[in-house]
């Protein structure tokens, strides 16, 4: 074992991962060789031993390739000696390669191949959900010494990491149960400092009363919930830290498990950390898996503190609650666990399943979840063609990786179900299924073993089955459940906008059958105002400078505004620099909600919280009276109370185009829902002015006749022409005839266009 080569691997994963290989004398290790995408490899103390001769950062070679990286670890014989004067050598420790992958800015990815799919789900840029957390710490005599010292050090760091909107308390127990506070308190600096002083004074002694300690923690959370003291959108967690079995109070493990299950409310997750090997780890796993959490083993040594902190970091940032994966197509079967109580930032949820490729070529997924005061629906469609192309080009690619990963997930979830089986008959049935799948898919489990035979066939070696308990922080963070695909919330499928006129500015098509007339703004930015009473389209351009912010709709009475910020082309053309809307801001003041839409992202801010969506997603977000619907790569629709809507369309151009840039267009349906005080370049036309067009005559261009128009006390010369409506043809657009008002709409709009420039993206227009 003087040389170990580790190949960093990824199958399109989205969170940070580590590839851990345990090294020990005469121990045979197999390293997988599935690779996908170029990886960013970070070496994190790659090797260490329990000896004073600590091996660290002895990376001999880091070789990058197009689709991966080889890491070679070659300690010398001298570096492997047990001590400087020892003749014996021993490599005994762990080699860890920590890596991340280059990824698209999406919430998830659906890989489909050979009748199997794998759904990787790791959304980012969401506002953390407040948490209510109870730390339940074993302070019995067996925790004396290094275990308690390391636990205290970890808790001091963990308490410092709590957010001010979090609530917490500490329960410590031996044969008695004590609480730092009898109820939850806010995680202010004063409270966390006091909690740290309390923990530092703990002196381990006595027995272990796990039953009473857990029931006390559950009571504190239940009572706070019943009294309405918890934020309805918050997440409640209990983290149990113990190193032994119960010795005081209720001793029967099945009874403790039953007591916890009967008392804990279904909005609480229980995580269990077992320190050392004296604790019944199987019991902790059953206890946590049954109550929406997981268990992990912590080694009771000098690294106990870092292991505890590493685990806490995994659950410190809840981003979503009640996450459910729906695959509505009838041909999708055998889906792994698809319902999860929480999703934590920095982690990833994997769901896999089977489908009939003779009936469908694409797999659709709809994920529903709850964020901070927000209901979320995310839609994903498989990308089978891309995967087939990749597999055909990469010699290292495994065409069966979706099948193998599905089998691996299924078997591991069956093992967890087996540990919770209520009867012997059910346990035998699950065991039979696990054995069948293990043999069929060549996966070694705690119920099977692997025989290794040399080429000649005259030597065999039996590889031990892997233990059911893993070291700290390896394996899946989530233990979920299987549920039938639920119905999608009605608000996630908003009814189409009624056929009516709309105001529009510089955008592309939204609905497949859009309203025939809109007020809109398109490129450079061309304003097209449809006047329903006159049944006329009036157009004008605004010639302003990049960076300026224009007021489009400003209704201070209703607290609604829409502003747009201009961007410029890459260079002037024919002596003129074209401008476009590169960013739009929507403010719904009564809902305290701001929505910023750029050509890159969609940012939703509610009070102090914010979350971000990508144009690469199809998603629906409901927050109070506001519904935001994103159609991948095309459009965003904002609806207020199902009565007022705004549509934004994304124009993508060739990135290497010498002049053009990506830009946005906006369509606003005319409505009488705005107040009489509404103004802005578009808002002023929500209350239609009277116009009279007469004396139509030939213009300088025979194809563009001229006419006179009387409006707002002005007599203007207007030109008949065509503008583009991109709602039905997102690439080429559809010609819309209109009368064009020159000089930046002078005479048609109130005042001068410079009067509509506002200082900030969310500034209301101050009209004289």
Automatic annotation (TrEMBL):
Cellular component terms per the entry's GO annotation: extracellular region
Source species, domain of life: Eukaryota
Any single Pfam family the record assigns to this protein: ITI_HC_C
Glycoprotein is among the record's keywords: yes
Molecular function terms, GO-annotated: serine-type endopeptidase inhibitor activity
One Gene Ontology biological process: hyaluronan metabolic process
SMART domains: VWA
Residue stretches making up the VWFA domain: 132-315
Keywords of the record: Glycoprotein, Protease inhibitor, Secreted, Serine protease inhibitor, Signal
Subcellular location: Secreted
Similarity comment: family membership: Belongs to the ITIH family.
Name this protein carries in UniProt: Inter-alpha trypsin inhibitor, heavy chain 2
């Amino acid at each position: 074992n003087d040389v170990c080569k580790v190949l960093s691997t990824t199958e399109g994963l989205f969170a940070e991962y580590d590839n851990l290989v345990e090294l020990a004398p005469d121990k045979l290790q197999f390293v997988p060789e599935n690779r996908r995408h170029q990886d960013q490899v970070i070496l994190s103390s790659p090797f260490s031993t329990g000896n004073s001769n600590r091996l660290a950062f002895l990376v001999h070679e880091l070789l990058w390739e197009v689709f991966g990286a080889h890491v070679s670890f070659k300690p010398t014989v001298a570096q492997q000696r047990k001590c400087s004067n020892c003749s014996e050598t021993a490599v005994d420790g762990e080699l860890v390669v920590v890596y991340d992958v280059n990824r698209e800015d999406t919430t998830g990815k659906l890989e489909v191949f050979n009748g199997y799919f794998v759904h990787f789900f790791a959304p980012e840029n969401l506002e953390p959900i407040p948490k209510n957390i109870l730390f339940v710490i074993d302070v019995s005599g067996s925790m004396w010494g290094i275990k308690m010292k390391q636990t205290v050090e970890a808790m001091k760091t963990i308490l410092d990491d709590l957010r001010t909107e979090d609530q917490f308390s500490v329960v410590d127990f031996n044969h008695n149960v004590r609480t730092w506070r009898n109820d939850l308190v806010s995680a202010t600096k004063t409270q966390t400092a006091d909690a740290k002083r309390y923990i530092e004074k703990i002196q381990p002694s006595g027995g272990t009363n796990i039953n009473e300690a857990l029931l006390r923690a559950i009571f504190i959370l239940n009572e706070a919930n019943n009294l309405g003291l918890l934020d309805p959108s918050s997440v409640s967690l209990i983290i149990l830290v113990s190193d032994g079995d119960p010795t005081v109070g209720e001793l029967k493990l099945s009874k403790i498990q039953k007591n916890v299950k009967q008392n804990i409310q279904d909005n609480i997750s229980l995580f269990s950390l077992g320190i050392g090997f004296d604790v019944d780890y199987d019991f902790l796993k059953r206890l946590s898996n049954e109550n929406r959490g997981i268990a992990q083993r912590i080694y009771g040594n000098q690294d106990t503190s870092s292991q505890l902190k590493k685990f806490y970091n995994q659950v410190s940032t809840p981003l979503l609650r009640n996450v459910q994966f729906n695959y509505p197509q009838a041909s999708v079967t055998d889906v792994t666990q698809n319902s999860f109580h929480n999703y934590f930032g920095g982690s990833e949820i994997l769901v896999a399943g089977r489908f009939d490729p003779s009936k469908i070529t694409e797999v659709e997924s709809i994920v529903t979840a709850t964020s901070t005061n927000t209901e979320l629906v995310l839609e994903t469609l498989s990308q089978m063609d891309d995967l087939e192309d990749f597999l055909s080009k990469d010699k290292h690619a495994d065409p069966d990786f979706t099948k193998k990963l599905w089998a691996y997930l299924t078997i591991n979830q069956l093992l967890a179900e087996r540990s919770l089986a209520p009867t012997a008959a059910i346990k035998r049935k699950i065991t039979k299924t696990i054995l069948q799948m293990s043999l069929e898919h060549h996966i070694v489990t705690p119920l099977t073993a692997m025989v290794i035979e040399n080429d000649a066939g005259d030597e065999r070696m039996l590889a031990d089955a892997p233990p059911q308990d893993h070291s700290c922080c390896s394996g899946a963070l989530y233990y979920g459940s299987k549920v039938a695909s639920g119905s999608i919330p009605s608000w996630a499928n908003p009814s189409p906008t009624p056929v009516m006129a709309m105001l529009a500015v510089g955008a592309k098509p939204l609905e497949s059958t859009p309203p025939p007339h809109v007020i809109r703004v398109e490129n450079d930015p061309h304003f097209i105002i449809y006047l329903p009473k006159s049944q006329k389209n009036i157009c004008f351009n605004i010639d302003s400078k990049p960076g300026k912010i224009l007021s489009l709709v400003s209704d201070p009475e209703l607290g609604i505004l829409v502003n747009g910020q201009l961007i410029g082309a890459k260079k002037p053309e024919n002596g003129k620099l074209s401008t476009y809307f590169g960013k739009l801001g929507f403010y719904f003041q009564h809902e305290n909600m701001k929505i910023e839409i750029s050509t890159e992202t969609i940012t939703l801010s509610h009070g102090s919280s914010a979350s971000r969506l990508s144009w690469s997603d199809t998603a629906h977000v409901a927050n109070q009276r506001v519904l935001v619907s994103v159609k991948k790569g095309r459009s965003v629709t904002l609806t207020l109370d199902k009565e007022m809507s705004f549509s934004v369309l994304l124009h993508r151009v060739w990135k290497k185009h010498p002049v053009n840039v990506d830009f946005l267009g906006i369509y606003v349906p005319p409505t009488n829902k705005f107040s009489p005080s509404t103004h802005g370049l578009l808002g002023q036309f929500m209350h239609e002015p009277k116009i009279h067009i007469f004396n139509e005559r030939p213009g300088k261009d025979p194809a563009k006749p001229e006419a006179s128009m009387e409006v707002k006390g002005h007599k203007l010369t207007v030109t008949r022409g065509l503008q583009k409506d991109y709602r039905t043809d997102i690439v080429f657009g559809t010609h819309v005839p209109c009368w064009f008002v020159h000089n930046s709409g002078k005479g048609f709009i109130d005042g001068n266009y410079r009067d509509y420039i506002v200082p900030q993206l969310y500034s209301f227009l101050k009209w004289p």
